[in-house]
């Protein structure tokens, strides 16, 4: 789960990390008022969206008067933010942050995420902050410092100080930067985060270290123990189909192709996508309805797949175990009656109650002529790929 920058800043503040004061606003007028209250000669107006790259996209703007703040806010609230992280559809903007603008001496990168190779959370730091860390890692990997954290002890003070020195801090700044790293590590562990990032951490011209951008992602599997974090979710930032899928307990990821896939089990879903590609087509989605899917869940899965206009054919690949084949067949027929299958639907069922399922599908065939059954997965993939070719 993601959260907005202003919420991430609250987490940093609660963990003793210095963050400039800021106001959250929702109208151009409120942005102008915030400029007056913050009283700085310069403020920064920032769109609050679940994506980075706002600076380059014009959605982080330095302003020098209440009028400029109003105009910047008006622009941001009436345009979708599009950056290298969002794709061409962009994301809507309805909340802004107004903060006093700081005079930056130098920008640093600090992040903590899971290093899957080392099997532990790892601090990532760079003196090349502000820009995309992926770019720094690609062009000059020697400028990215990685410090693995002990799974139980977290980030030790000696590690944090070593990183602070490597970043080029000296004097009192070594201790200050190290404290920020240790506190960020604590916040990462306490919130069950999968990413905790400050980019940039800045050294200001008047000699302060501050976080001026913050990002947290949380492990969805741990959200049940963080009601306060779960409550921060902003559904307007997610694609509508993703929200629906989550509510129906479906693992759904939209892709670019035109074959909708409805599968139970993540492994089988991957295999299904592979075989679709093998026979020359592209999957429109990954969809694992899960082992214990209900009839209503399966119908919702069809609705979600069918509401994607790119989908020109559907491949249903179910291995009936906990979810029995006849339940899936009935859901398929129910979905067909509700939405009407105007596109080819090829069904491969195997496992518990497969005979009953075949009878249900055979009986429905006269009403649903685009519904076809397959003898096995290869047959199913060939049929659905041929149908959209
Ligand atoms: P992002 O592009 O979405 O990561 O948004 P950021 O909050 O990181 O802002 C992008 C860039 O804008 C930063 O790297 C800074 O260079 C600049 N910026 C943001 N806030 C301020 C500020 O208060 N003062 C100055 N001078 N620059 C800022
Ligand atoms: Mn940033």
Summarize the structure.
With 389 residues, this protein is α+β, with helices and mostly antiparallel strands. The protein contains 14 helices and 16 strands.
What does this structure look like?
This protein starts with a helix and ends with a helix. It has helices at residues 5-14, 28-38, 54-57, 66-77, 133-139, 157-166, 172-190, 227-230, 240-247, 266-278, 295-306, 325-339, 354-364, 377-388; strands spanning 23-25, 43-47, 60-63, 96-100, 104-115, 120-126, 145-148, 193-204, 209-211, 214-218, 251-254, 259-263, 285-288, 313-320, 345-351, 371-373. The mean pLDDT is 94. The strands form four sheets. Strands 5, 6, 7, 8, 9 and 10 form a six-stranded antiparallel beta sheet that branches. The protein contains 14 helices and 16 strands. It folds into three domains: 1-20 and 103-237, ATP-grasp fold, B domain (D-amino Acid Aminotransferase, Chain A, domain 1), CATH 3.30.470; 21-101, 2-Layer Sandwich (Dna Ligase, domain 1); 239-388, 3-Layer(aba) Sandwich (Rossmann fold). The protein has 389 residues and is α+β, with helices and mostly antiparallel strands. The structure holds guanosine-5'-diphosphate and manganese (II) ion (MN). Residues 44, 46, 52-55, 60, 62, 101-102, 104, 107, 130, 199-200, 212-213 line the site of guanosine-5'-diphosphate. Manganese (II) ion is lined by residues 52, 199, 213.
């Amino acid at each position: 789960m993601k959260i907005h920058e202003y919420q991430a800043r609250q987490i940093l503040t609660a963990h003793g990390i210095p963050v400039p004061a800021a106001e959250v606003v929702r109208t151009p007028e409120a942005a102008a008022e915030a400029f007056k209250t913050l009283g700085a000669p310069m403020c920064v107006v920032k769109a609050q969206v679940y994506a980075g790259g706002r600076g380059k996209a014009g959605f982080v703007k330095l302003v020098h008067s209440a009028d400029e703040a109003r105009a910047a806010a008006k622009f941001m609230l009436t345009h979708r933010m599009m950056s290298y992280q969002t794709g061409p559809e962009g994301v809507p903007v309805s909340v802004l942050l107004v903060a006093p603008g700081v005079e930056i001496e130098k920008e640093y990168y600090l992040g903590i995420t899971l290093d899957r190779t080392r099997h532990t959370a790892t601090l990532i730091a760079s003196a090349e902050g502000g820009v995309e860390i992926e770019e720094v890692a690609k062009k000059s990997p020697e400028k990215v410092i990685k410090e693995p954290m002990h799974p139980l002890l977290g980030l030790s003070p000696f590690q944090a100080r070593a990183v602070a020195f490597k970043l080029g801090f000296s004097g009192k700044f070594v201790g200050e930067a190290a404290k920020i790293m240790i506190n960020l590590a604590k916040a990462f562990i306490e919130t069950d985060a999968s990413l905790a990032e400050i980019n940039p951490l800045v050294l200001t011209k008047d000699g302060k270290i501050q976080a001026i951008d913050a990002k947290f992602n949380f492990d969805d599997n741990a959200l049940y123990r963080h009601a306060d974090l779960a409550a921060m979710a902003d559904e307007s930032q997610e694609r509508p189909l993703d929200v629906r899928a989550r509510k129906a307990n479906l693992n759904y990821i939209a892709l670019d192709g035109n074959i909708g896939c409805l599968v139970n089990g993540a492994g089988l879903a991957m295999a299904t996508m592979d075989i679709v590609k093998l026979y020359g087509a592209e999957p429109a989605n990954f969809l694992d309805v899960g082992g214990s899917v209900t009839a209503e869940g399966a119908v919702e899965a069809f609705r979600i797949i069918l509401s994607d206009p790119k989908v020109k054919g559907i491949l249903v690949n179910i291995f009936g175990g906990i979810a029995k084949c006849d339940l899936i067949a009935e859901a398929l027929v129910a979905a067909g009656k509700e939405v009407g299958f105007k596109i080819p639907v090829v069904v491969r069922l195997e496992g518990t109650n497969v005979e009953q399922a075949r009878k249900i599908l055979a009986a429905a065939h006269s009403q649903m002529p685009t519904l076809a059954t397959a003898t096995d997965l290869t047959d199913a993939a060939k049929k659905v790929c041929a149908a959209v070719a």
